[in-house]
Every structure is written in C-alpha cells, then in structure tokens.
Amino acid sequence: MAVSRAVRDLWLRRLAAPTQRGFHLSPRPLSSSAHQASKAAPSEASDHSYESLQVTSAGTHVLHVQLNRPDKRNAMNKAFWREMVECFNKIARDSNCRAVVVSGAGKMFTSGIDLMDMASELLQPEGDDVARISWYLRDLITQYQKTFTVIEKCPKPVIAAIHGGCIGGGVDLITACDIRYCAQDAFFQVKEVDIGLTPDLGTLQRLPKVIENQSLVNELAFTARKMMAGEALSSGLVSRVFVDKEAMLDAAFTLAAEVSSKSPVAVQSTKASGK
C-alpha cells in the first residue's frame, strides 16, 4: 500500500509540475505490453516492404509506420508519395490491424518534400505550353493529395508521434491523422512560401478544422514561422507533449494498445461518424 501510494503521489507531482517552457509535460506512461514487444523484437509486418517507409508490428493489432529516410531527414521523395498510398490501402483492408502509430526515424519527423528528388517534375516540368504544364501540375498535385487523404480515410485510428522538425508536407501528413502527440523538441512549420510554393496538399483545408483559428493558420502559412511544442499544445494541434521521443512513443503505443482493445466495429464507426 505504501509503495502504491508513493507511486501515485509521484505521478500527481509530475502532472502538476510546470516546465520552463510554460506548459505542462505529460508524464511517461506505464509502458504497454504492445510497446514492450515492439522494442524487444520489432518485426517487419507481412506484406509491407518499402523504400521510404518501415512498417513493423507493435504488438497485437497495432502497426508502427515509420518514415524511414533518417539520413535525408525523412524527406518525402518520389517513392514516399506512392508507398504511403499503397501502405495505408493495405492497412485499411487488414482486419488484424486496429490502430496505427506514425513516427519518423532518426532526429526529426520529416523535413518535408525532397526538392532534390522532386524538382524535375514539380519545379521544372517539361514543355513550354503554359496550359498543358498547368494541367500536368494539377494532375500531379491531385495525386500527391491522395497520399494524405488515404490516411484520413483509413478506417483505423492513426496516431501521429512527432519529434524534432515537422516541416512542409509533414504538417499536411499529421493534420490527416486522428490524434497527435509530440515531444517537447518538436516544431511545426508550414514552409511552402519560403520556397515559392502554395501549401496545397491539405494543410489549408485541415489545419483550420484542427485548431479552429483561421487567423493563426493564415499567420503560419503567410510567414512560414515555426510553431513550437507549447504553442502546438495550447492551439490544439497536439493533445499532449512529452519530455522526449522515447516517452512520446511509450505514450503513443500505450494509447494504440488501449484503442485496439476496444470493439473495432465501434471504434471504426466512431471515426467514420466524426468525418
């Protein structure tokens, strides 16, 4: 009883203690069996083999989708746009999967579009007919939009776990997810105007719905300034902030395990009804 009371008191103190950044960090959860299993023996999920992603089983009914180009800061190359659609279409049909955690390998979540890889088709399309180039770009952007729409339409709840930078297309990605956690080192940046592009892959449509503040959305989109973790929490972009990546992933997998323990029909119907 004494030990139990001491643990409870420590938990409450951690909940109440403010951080130097002026917001409350969520405490590290008691690790779920699902996350313990994923840390002990991460195994690649069957039927998921990709160049830009790594998909592993994180315990019963939970999949972990990692953006997996850490040497390129998880920049979104040509393979990424195709593979995300393939991956989440498979997850949607996977009756064994009930919840998904999306994170980034390495030091950050994602640096956004890989301009080195994408420049030829995005910034320098072939031809000199303005009308045909415009139609080509319209079709190309529509295809890119599907990369994030497929997450939004996936019947399984998708939890984004963000650490470090979440830049450009990363914001498009996380706003298509159902739940967002981040580490205190996270920052969010609608970066497109700095490189002469329009953020037209979903951010301008989804972010106002998420944070319910069009003025703030415009500020972020027009200036490309960074939104730090504390502001992301207070604005409603994320629901919890953790001291580091490990604590955040602990919490994300614990949450995914709890979600997956519920009736999948009830959970997926709830997600569908909320769209």
From TrEMBL:
SUPFAM superfamilies: ClpP/crotonase. It comes from the Eukaryota. One of its GO terms (molecular function) is delta(3,5)-delta(2,4)-dienoyl-CoA isomerase activity. One of its GO terms (cellular component) is mitochondrion. PROSITE patterns: ENOYL_COA_HYDRATASE. Transmembrane segments: none annotated. CDD domains: crotonase-like. InterPro entries: ClpP/crotonase-like_dom_sf, Ech1-like, Enoyl-CoA_hyd/isom_CS, Enoyl-CoA_hydra/iso. It holds the Pfam family ECH_1. Residues 23-51 are annotated as: Disordered. Belongs to the enoyl-CoA hydratase/isomerase family. This is Delta(3,5)-Delta(2,4)-dienoyl-CoA isomerase, mitochondrial-like isoform X1. It comes from Dipodomys ordii. The lineage of its organism: Eukaryota, Metazoa, Chordata, Craniata, Vertebrata.
